[in-house]
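WARN retry 2 of 3 for item q-0093 after timeout on previous attempt; input resubmitted unchanged.
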Amino acid sequence: MTTAEVLVKCLEAQGVKYVFGIPGEENLAFLEALRTSTIKLVITRHEQAAVFMAATIGRLTGKAGVALSTLGPGATNLVTGVAYAQLGGMPLLVITGQKPVRVSKQGRFQIIDVVSMMKPITKMTARIDEPAKVALLLKKAFEIAEIERPGAVHLELPEDIASEEVLGDVDFSPNEKPYREAPGDIEVSKAVQLIQEAKHPVVLIAAGANRKRIHRELSAFIEKTKIPFVTTQMGKGVLDEMYPSYLGTTALSADDYVHCALERSDLILSIGHDTIEKPPVIMTPSKRIVIHMNFYEASSEEILDDVYVPSHQVVGDIALGLKKLTEMIVPQDSWDIQYFTRVAEKMRKQILERSDSSGFPLKPQRIVADLTTVLAGADTGLMCLDNGMYKLWIARGFFAREQNSILLDNALATMGAGLPSAIAAKMLYPEKRVLAVVGDGGFMMSSSELETAKRLNLDLVVLILNDNGYGMIKWKQEAEGLTNFGLDFNNPDFVKFAESFGAQGVRISKAGELRGALENAFAAGGLHVIDCPIDYTENVLVFNKELKEKTCDL
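OK item q-0093 returned
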């Protein structure tokens, strides 16, 4: 077998179902090996979208998704998606082609040092230069991509190496499931003591908790203790947010009711948090006791920056640690959560304000309410968000019912990922309602992938929230008292645009139409694009005035 054939057999052994990407002439040997394999090649319209799709596979399964590109411009187009996976903790393998390395007569045409380019944004990057080592190198790449903290790895396969024969026996066995140790009893006992001695404890659920199935253990802990919990944006859905003890999501950096609760706390049990995600509150010993519970220790960089300085660390498998914690802890009469209950009530009341508004363009609160009605039932829907102003409204106001039922990125926070992410999610979960929620800016960065969705015959709904501008930056510009400048643009007719791809297009013309349009699209099946104007005057009114003028004396 050739190196390319061995590589594909190794991918099959690792359980890879899809390779996303755009091949070039340097990938032809690999492409031929894929042709006769069990792996489905999904051709995308841009390499960046291919990596978003592969990263989403990794995010939802815990197994590295795979993306492919050629050399030079194909490889450089991968970079944003690779950084997206690396910062977001999503296991990913990208494979790039390269000109022949034994003998080449093309000079430096299209050649850049891709391995060095990938080094700062991956956990591992390497060139396959010895056919006999390809199987071992791939196993190592998968192991590194998937172990905590997960992230991106890169392999370069030169054109001539790909076609060379692999001599000798090849080990095609898959990687064994990594063994994760439980935290030590001493660490857990110390955490129990600190929690029991606290007066106003709060649980913070973050991205690391969403990567593994810890729902049962965390639910048992919350049910036993009744300690209130908050989530970061990437921690949404680990627990049902209709729990009475849910205090909100840290969508904003400050000045929300959830921050009232965090500021009142004297102890935070931080589950799965790292500061690649925007810190929900400064967590240092001068403010409150912080217990770090994660698969790995808090990094020295975080501690040196005085952003996240744990008082105690419980390191190891989170689920096993929570199980021990629940067995050992005794709920305390001295815990005072009455203030947190008032915060939760106030938060819920404020979120519902204007959620039934008939104003047009639609207010964000009305859009979130309609999305909740259509998607938030248990096990019915999965929402993939791009990045924009609406992400804050949805993260704050949409109460997730199930783990990974809402996918958003609060790490690299790049635009353009929403539609590709939804395509990958629908491929994994064809039985679910999958909705891509995108701004007009982010949608146009990956809109060509409508063709990919149509070619794959996916039942997918895309909701475009349209304000003819870069809404989040306009909000910040206005909040700083600056003149509106440089952030407006024009859009195509999104209905005709959708129809040109063979999709169904709908334009919302009054507030009462959105919910029905979403329901009709899901019921009909096929590919649908809904153009919905949004009223972002609410940004300053709610986030810069109403919330800043609130009082935490509840």
